[in-house]
Amino acid sequence: MDGSVANEALVMRSDADGVTTLTLNRPAQRNALSVALMGALIEELAHIRQDSGCKVVILAGAGPAFCSGHDLKEMRATPEPAFYEALFAQCSVLMQAIVTLPQPVIARVHGIATAAGCQLVASCDLAIAAEDARFATPGVNIGLFCSTPMVALSRNVSRKAAMEMLLTGEMVDAARAQQIGLINRAVPPQALEQEVQALAQKIAAKSALTVKTGKEAFYRQLEMPLVEAYAYTAGVMAKNMMAADAAEGIDAFLTKRMPVWRNC
């Protein structure tokens, strides 16, 4: 944590065995993304970016829900264009901070993940949800189309599935969310924390350099034409091959032993 009382109250952080858990902590508001909460989360992610001891991040929510989206009361309290522009710009910074973070981010979803909360799930690299979790981009129901959530949603699920969620605003259950690719899998609620921890530990056991290299390349190549993507990733792999961890990993495989990562 950064030591500020405000940030400690809004985002709780715990670290164990290379895994950092960030918990949104506005349970009474269903972890609605207020300006202060988004600021606290952006700040935590900035700290984690520089933390070599953190290999994987879990994003969770305190109380009965993962995240209900933007704080509508806060939004209506300041009906000014400049405020709204700054608010949605800040939200975009937050989502991009997750995507560009060197460490993989796993969403641990329970309750609801709606509007910008659904965007948060879609922005994470991986997501595991409780079987009774529900997802929605319901802005259309209140006259505010979920345009910024649409960016992350449309990059994770098929076009028609995204458009159905965006145009109807209806809730999607965890089974459907898994089917369309919004989450990796749905598990019994009582097994949620254990399943997420197991996945996080599996990734944390890998070379941090290799994981960082792969995550960055994954998102960059997605936006490239096929020929350009192959040229780019060929260069990435050639550079990766020169890393100490690549030599160690290959030698360990050939000699049938466990690798000892140096993360370089």
From TrEMBL:
Record key words, sorted: Fatty acid metabolism, Lipid metabolism, Lyase, Transit peptide
Pfam families in UniProt: ECH_1
Listed GO MF terms: enoyl-CoA hydratase activity
Keyword match Lipid metabolism: yes
Matching InterPro entries: ClpP/crotonase-like_dom_sf (IPR029045), Enoyl-CoA_hydra/iso (IPR001753), Enoyl-CoA_hydra_C (IPR014748), Mitochondrial_ECH-domain (IPR052377)
CDD domains in the cross-refs: crotonase-like (cd06558)
Signal peptide: none
Keyword set includes Cell cycle: no
Purpose of the protein: May play a role in fatty acid biosynthesis and insulin sensitivity.
Family note: Belongs to the enoyl-CoA hydratase/isomerase family.
Record-given protein name: Enoyl-CoA hydratase domain-containing protein 3, mitochondrial
Highest classification ranks of the organism: Bacteria, Pseudomonadati, Pseudomonadota, Alphaproteobacteria, Rhodospirillales
